[in-house]
Design a protein that fits this description.
Immunoglobulin-like, 5-stranded mixed sheet, 0% helix
Length: 146
Amino acid sequence: MTPTRILPDLQCSLLCEEVRQEINGNFFLLGIIDVVRVPHLPVTASRLGLFNRWTSGVGVFTESVRLLAPDQTTVLSKIETKFQMKSTNHTATTISWFINVELKTAGPYSIEVLVDDIMKVRYPMNVIHLPQPAPGQGGAPTPPPA
């Protein structure tokens, strides 16, 4: 008997700046994000990509990805994507884009990935406020007067 539904495993989930696909079908990710360093707050993240690879499943599924504020309850953005897997020997790739998300404070934001309302992974996206140094306070040297 062939199974008609097997919940997939999440092989990887990576937050990045850009996802591209080559002509041969392979993906490459640019700017893998671990920490977001910003010179001022609040700041608007114009585009954050979430690359998820699913494996070992059979059926039609709904992926939900959420970006949570540092209070760990406020959902800043939620994206749902349907995908299908016909065999446990195949993979499915989903790419979600968080667009124009306002990051109001520094702290540990969270990325959550669920499939059919079952949590598969939750991981931090730390936002760090690094103010620009004042003139003469470090950074690039000030050129001498002419």
